[in-house]
């Protein structure tokens, strides 16, 4: 279990899209970080729920996307940018072509969802296609306690 996970340093990303963020800039608000990949159908299928969380909690929750390549084909930063535009991913996107962020999170799966409280302590995480619904419920609970 990852219950003791503290929000890792995000500077290990190989590329950034939309805007760059730091761990420190995220503290003070709950943060949802999700891992996805351009070749993952389940990731793309889950994006509308992630976007509803982003839009519903705009200004009171940080949403960060981490692109974790699953194959050599997923390393193309231009393809990641194209998919981000196609699916209207407007939150910061960290590209993890070296899997250093995945290692820091202890993550090997996409989609994967990590919800941190305002202090940067892991509150809950879920994996897989149904994980997005569980993390949405967890975000609702966390923000109702704030």
TrEMBL record:
InterPro entries with a match to the protein in the record: AhpC/TSA, Thioredoxin-like_sf, Thioredoxin_domain, Thioredoxin_ResA/DsbE_sf
Listed GO MF terms: antioxidant activity; oxidoreductase activity
SUPFAM superfamilies: Thioredoxin-like
Keywords for this protein: Disulfide bond
Thioredoxin domain segment(s): 1-144
Pfam family, one: AhpC-TSA
PANTHER family reported for this sequence: THIOL-DISULFIDE OXIDOREDUCTASE YKUV (PTHR42852:SF12), THIOL:DISULFIDE INTERCHANGE PROTEIN DSBE (PTHR42852)
Protein name as annotated: Redoxin domain-containing protein
Organism lineage string: Bacteria, Bacillati, Bacillota, Bacilli, Bacillales
């Amino acid at each position: 279990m990852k219950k003791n996970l503290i929000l890792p340093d995000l500077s290990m990303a190989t590329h950034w899209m939309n805007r760059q963020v730091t761990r420190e800039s995220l503290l003070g608000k709950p943060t949802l970080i999700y891992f996805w990949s351009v070749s993952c159908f389940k990731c793309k299928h889950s994006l509308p729920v992630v976007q509803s969380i982003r839009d519903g909690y705009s200004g009171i929750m940080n949403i960060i996307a981490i692109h974790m390549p699953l194959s050599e084909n997923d390393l193309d930063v231009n393809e990641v940018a194209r998919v981000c535009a196609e699916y209207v991913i407007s939150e910061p996107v960290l590209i993890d072509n070296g899997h250093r962020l995945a290692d820091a999170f202890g993550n090997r799966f996409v989609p994967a969802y990590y919800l941190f409280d305002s202090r940067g302590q892991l509150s809950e995480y879920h994996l897989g296609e149904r994980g997005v619904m569980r993390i949405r419920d967890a975000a609702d609970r966390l923000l109702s306690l704030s």
